[in-house]
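Work package 3, deliverable 3.1, input record:
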Amino acid sequence: MPELPEVETVVTVLKRRILGLTIQNIDIYYDKMMDEDTKTLLIGKTISDITRQGKYICFHLNPYVLISHLRMEGRYFFKDIDEPKLKHEHVVFTLSDGLSLRYHDTRKFGTFDLRHLSDYKVVPPLSQLADEPFQIDPKALYKTLKSKHKAIKTALLDQSIIAGIGNIYADEILFSTRINPHRMTSKLTQKDTTNVVNAAILILNQAILSGGTTIRTYVSELGVSGRFQLKLMVHQREGEHCYVCGGSIVREVINGRSSFYCKTCQKR
DNA sequence: AACGAAACCTGCGCGC
DNA sequence: TGCGCGCAGGTTTCGT
């Protein structure tokens, strides 16, 4: 499901609902999702803050941080404790207000990592994370890209180069800057790089304002669903006409991911 | 260093 | 109706 804007939306909703609450119990229904040690250490802890770094959600539970990654299909729901557990609810947190926070994940790709508050940013997985478009220095990014030999589309998806961008927004950012997804990063100019950063900020912010995107309805909270407000220019539009030149949008696999672009607008 | 393929999982839509 | 295939917003791992 999520790229940075969707995760941001989830964090906003979670903060509104569970800040200051204490974890009274955790039920794990899929062993691989969370280990027993983590569960034991977290029971009795209070959620003092919830932050986001890239696509990771950080629950601050002094002296620990529970780091949650939704991967493709992870979602959080709030429900009454006595509501029956659904098939894809794998971790259920019982909170001190009497509600349960349920982690739902059809494909079971999501992860939970427990770290210490004192150093969680400098150990994996967060230590691998680059700056987000909002903070990244375009000059530093240009230098990084110059030193790599890979397609720009691949680089935008590499969280150690720039954090928070996923497959949808990578395509949209490249269309917006008229850069062909196959273009080698070493051939990008400083101006191209600055354009990419600016486009990323603009597009991600728009998506955050819409409460996340886009393709399927996604629910960040019971009763609050992601809307389809952000108009996608190229992603998932194979064979349709380009809104700018009228040409046909193509789909090609790059780095194992579907990539949509306009061959006329986005020259190599 | 970089690429591709496979792995981790499940469900959906499609053609036959 | 059923079956097999390809596809999915992410990331890691392994071989070349």
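Residues 175 and 261 of chain A are 6 Å apart (CA to CA).
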